[in-house]
User: Which sequence fits this backbone?
């Protein structure tokens, strides 16, 4: 069986980012918390490092929504999937949105 | 039959506004366009004055989502329902969000 490769992972171009799609992606406590975590980390994080109060499959779904909306970038390395925030792309297209969202996502984490 | 009154319309307190609920409410092109229209009007507008490319019942659903999220205020006068943007409440709780959302909602309108 072929191993999963990063080429399977679709990412929208920065010019194709859609404001309502991005808002809908951020409009969920778990996804907002993921974004805050990635924003605070400032680097890529493996999916396994997020301590989220949801099942593994639900978690995967949340990462996928964020990737397809263009909020995060994902890449595979061996059996691990890494995630990073598309900070520059989002700051370019929707300036101020992440600055507003990240502190709110931190509060979600603090509430868990 | 009793006429519909504004007391039927539930509005969350400003302190109860939830960031992800507000983002999810704004994360739809029709709802974002409604918000832009109300923001630009700077006053209340009757539901009938919005030229939206959706059915009347779908439109009512969108207004309801916005009200329940705390984005708009609704009141009934006779048979008409008026809508206004909760600009001060939103600016207080999530500064900058509407400044970002309204221009994006205008683009939605322009695309119709």
Assistant:
């Amino acid at each position: 069986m072929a191993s999963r490769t990063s080429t399977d992972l679709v990412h929208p171009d920065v010019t194709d980012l859609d404001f309502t799609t991005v808002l809908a992606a951020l409009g969920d406590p778990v996804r907002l918390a993921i974004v805050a975590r990635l924003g605070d980390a400032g680097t890529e994080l493996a999916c396994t490092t997020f301590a989220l109060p949801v099942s593994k499959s639900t978690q995967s779904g949340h990462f996928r929504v964020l990737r397809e909306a263009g909020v995060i970038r994902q890449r595979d390395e061996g059996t691990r999937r890494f995630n990073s925030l598309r900070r520059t792309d989002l700051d370019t297209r929707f300036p101020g949105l992440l600055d507003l969202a990240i502190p709110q996502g931190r509060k979600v984490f603090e509430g868990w």
Q: What stands out?
A: The mean pLDDT of chain B is 93. Helices of chain B lie at 19-26, 29-41, 56-69, 87-93, 97-111. The radius of gyration of chain B is 13 Å. DSSP finds five helices and three strands in chain B.
